[in-house]
Each structure stands twice: as structure tokens, then as C-alpha cells.
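PROTEIN DESIGN WORKSHEET
SECTION A - STRUCTURE
LENGTH: 447
C-ALPHA CELLS:
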């Protein structure tokens, strides 16, 4: 902006002071600094020059340090202009600034700062003081509201953090409780598994124990069915052996056998008046009586060699402890069925009974050849007798007295029997146990 003051050929304090003062005034005029440009910037008179020279007549030694400070400040300050052609002044003892020069430099720097502030304000206009106060007051009120809201939110945040901490503590407690319950559940599952295994073993042992006590798997229903089949098999045997219209019946042999049994003496009909169906009914009773004598009417079993001694001991035990007596009888039945020798003894007993029956049947009925069926009857009777003896309450045949009136509720009639008469012949005995839990009525003929 200002380019003058060429390098002078001298280096005196007076000339340097004049140059600095001129620079200050020129800058003031350029920046339009109030007061300084109007009062200080005027032509130099010889008197002013002499007065300035007198004021600048100070020792170089006192201003050397001051000049150095001013030069650095001037170099560092903002410079809106560039002055060229001024030689560098070294910091020697003969080159020091005066107090006025320093004051001018300070004024120059202050005016530069004011100019920058003015330019900044021109670009950003400042509102009036009243508006500024209202805005400030609004800002303060808003700040207070925000502080209040912040405090409230801080309190809520503290409460939420405390609640979160409590929830976490409760969650941790529940997790621990859940872990404990899981371990307890695992322990209980293990115990339940062990108990299930123990129960299976106990159940197996119990059923095995029960099966060991019972000689067979029969119960009342199966025994009832087997007795019914046995009765039907005897009827079918006699019906087949007698032939059509009893053509195979040997009347004389039948009457002789009837008489030998002693039943003919109390029979209501004379032997000369006996009809074939009477003799056939009698032969059914003969077969059943043989089965009862050989198999059903034994204290324990037909193949047991100590039936007489067993009966005496069993009666003695039953009077003192019926449960132990029953258990002992059932155990003996199991031992008999599991004994390897029982099968051979059973074959021998069945063969002997079947041979005796076959001989009688063959003598009464000519051309009879039913040995296999008779043997099958004897074998079924043996097995049925063992099953009935092995029950808790023994099922045994019951004899029916002759001459008693017929009872249709407890008895079954036969061919041409008089329901209003009395019992003249027992064809098939009744079967019952000691507590009347099982009861099959007899088949009788009444006159």
C-alpha cells in the first residue's frame, strides 16, 4: 500500500525517528484512525524537527532492548500493507527507539485490532441491547428448564439403574434356583429310574413267586370250562360205544356190573324193567366214578407216594395256621409238576386207569374200540386234578346222597329224568371249594 522512503545514505537516530513517525502517520491516514490522523499528521516544520530531535536525543544504550521488542511485535502483528525499501536495522547500541515511537506502534496495533472487529461486526450485525437481554433471559430460562429436566431424568435414570440392578439380582437368584431345581430334577430322574428298575425286579420276582405257588395257570373259569368239556367227552364216549339204538350194549354184562357196584339194590326199578338208557346212564357214572377214584379223590396227587401222611400233616397245620398250610400244599403241587419223575409216574397212572376203564367198556359194549379216547379222558382228569389241588382253595368232587328231592337250582337233569322225583343215580358229581366260591351242580337221574 505504501512504497516510499528509499534507503538513506546515513544512519542517524534523527532520520530513523522521522521515518518511523512518518510510517505511523501514513498508516493512520490509510486506516482512518480518529484523532491521530487529524492531529498528529501535519507538515513538519523546522521547529518541530528541532523539537523531535531534542526529544530523540537519548542514549543508544538505553533503547537498544526496547527497539528489539518493538521490531518483533511489529513483525508479528497483522500487516494490511507492505512497506518496501526500508533497510534492515541491526540491533546495535546506536539504533534504539524512543518512547513516542513505541507509543505509535502500540496505537497502530490497537487500531488494527479495532478494524478487524469492525469488519466482523459489519458482516454479522449485533442486535440491540433490549433484544439481547430478552434473548439472554430466554436462554437462561431455557437453561433452567433443561437443568430441571436433566435433574429429573437423572433421578429417573438412577431409579431405572437401581431397578435394573434389582432385576439383575433377581434374575441371578432365579437362575441359581433354576440350576438347583435342574440338579434336583436330574437326581429325582435318576432315583425314579432306579426305582422303576427295582419295581420291575420286584414285580418279576412277585409274579415268579406267584407262579411258583400255583402249579398251573388255571383259575375258576378255566376249571369250570375244563370240567364241562370232561362231562361232554364222557357222554360222547358212551353214545358212540353203545351204537344205534344201543345195539352194542351187552345187557347182561351191564346188569352184572350194576349189581356188583351195589347201586342196583337201592335203585327204584327192578333189573328186569331196566331199559337201555338206564344202563347207558349207569355206564357214564361208572366212567366218572373211575376218574374220581383214580385222580380227583386224592389228598394231593395220585402220583405222590405220601398222600396219607400229607393229609394228616396238612390237617394239623390248617388248624393252627391255615395260610401256612395252604402255602405248603401249593408248594408241594409245584414241586410235583416240576419233578422230572412226575411225567413218568403220570404216564403210568393214566395208563393203569385207562386200561381198567377200557376193560369195563369193552365188556359192556361189544365191538368197542375206544382205548385212545379213554386214555385222553384219563390224562385230562389227571391234569385237572392237579390244577384244582394247586389253587388257594381246593376244588374237589362232592357226593350227592341218593333219595333226596331234585333241586333244579343246584342240580342238572339227564335223559328221561323226573324233575319232581328223587335222586336215584348220580351220573356226574358236583365240584366245589371250601368257601363256595366255585360250585358246579351234579348231573342226576330222578325217579
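SECTION B - SEQUENCE
RESIDUE ASSIGNMENT:
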Amino acid at each position: 500500500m505504501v512504497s516510499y522512503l528509499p534507503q538513506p545514505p546515513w544512519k542517524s537516530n534523527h532520520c530513523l525517528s522521522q521515518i518511523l513517525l512518518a510510517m505511523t502517520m501514513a498508516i493512520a491516514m490509510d486506516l482512518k484512525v480518529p484523532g491521530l490522523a487529524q492531529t498528529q499528521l501535519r507538515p513538519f516544520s523546522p521547529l518541530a524537527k528541532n523539537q523531535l530531535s531534542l526529544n530523540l536525543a537519548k542514549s543508544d544504550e538505553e533503547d537498544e532492548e526496547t527497539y528489539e521488542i518493538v521490531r518483533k511485535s511489529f513483525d508479528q502483528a497483522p500487516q494490511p500493507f507492505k512497506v518496501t525499501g526500508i533497510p534492515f536495522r541491526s540491533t546495535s547500541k546506536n539504533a534504539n527507539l524512543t518512547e513516542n515511537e513505541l507509543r505509535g506502534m502500540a496505537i497502530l496495533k490497537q487500531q488494527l485490532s479495532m478494524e478487524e472487529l469492525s469488519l466482523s461486526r459489519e458482516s454479522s450485525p449485533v442486535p440491540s441491547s433490549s433484544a439481547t437481554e430478552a434473548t439472554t433471559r430466554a436462554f437462561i430460562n431455557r437453561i433452567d428448564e433443561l437443568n430441571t429436566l436433566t435433574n429429573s431424568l437423572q433421578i429417573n435414570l438412577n431409579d431405572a439403574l437401581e431397578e435394573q440392578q434389582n432385576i439383575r439380582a433377581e434374575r441371578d437368584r432365579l437362575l441359581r434356583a433354576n440350576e438347583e431345581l435342574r440338579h434336583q430334577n436330574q437326581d429325582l430322574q435318576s432315583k425314579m429310574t432306579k426305582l422303576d428298575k427295582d419295581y420291575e425286579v420286584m414285580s418279576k420276582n412277585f409274579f415268579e413267586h406267584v407262579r411258583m405257588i400255583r402249579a398251573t395257570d388255571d383259575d375258576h373259569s378255566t376249571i369250570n370250562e375244563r370240567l364241562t368239556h370232561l362231562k361232554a367227552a364222557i357222554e360222547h364216549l358212551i353214545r358212540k360205544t353203545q351204537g344205534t339204538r344201543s345195539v352194542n350194549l351187552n345187557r347182561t354184562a351191564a346188569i352184572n356190573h350194576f349189581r356188583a357196584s351195589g347201586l342196583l339194590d337201592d335203585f327204584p326199578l327192578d333189573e328186569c324193567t331196566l331199559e337201555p338208557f338206564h344202563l347207558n346212564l349207569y355206564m357214564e357214572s361208572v366212567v366218572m366214578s373211575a376218574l374220581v377214584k383214580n385222580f380227583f379223590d386224592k389228598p394231593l396227587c395220585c402220583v405222590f407216594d405220601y398222600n396219607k401222611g400229607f393229609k394228616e400233616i396238612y390237617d394239623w397245620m390248617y388248624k393252627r395256621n391255615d395260610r401256612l398250610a395252604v402255602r405248603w400244599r401249593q408248594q408241594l403241587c409245584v414241586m410235583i409238576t416240576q419233578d422230572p419223575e412226575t411225567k413218568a409216574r403220570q404216564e403210568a397212572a393214566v395208563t393203569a386207569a385207562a386200561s381198567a376203564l377200557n376193560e369195563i367198556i369193552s365188556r359192556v359194549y361189544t365191538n368197542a374200540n375206544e382205548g385212545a379216547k379213554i386214555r385222553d379222558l384219563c390224562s385230562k382228569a389227571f391234569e385237572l386234578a392237579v390244577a384244582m389241588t394247586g389253587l388257594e382253595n381246593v376244588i374237589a368232587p362232592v357226593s350227592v346222597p341218593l333219595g333226596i328231592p331234585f333241586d333244579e337250582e343246584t342240580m342238572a337233569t339227564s335223559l328221561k329224568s323226573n324233575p319232581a322225583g328223587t335222586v336215584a343215580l348220580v351220573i356226574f358229581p358236583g365240584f366245589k371249594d371250601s368257601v363256595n366260591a366255585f360250585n358246579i351242580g351234579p348231573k342226576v337221574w330222578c325217579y
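SECTION C - NOTES
The radius of gyration is 73 Å.
The chain has 13 helices and six strands.
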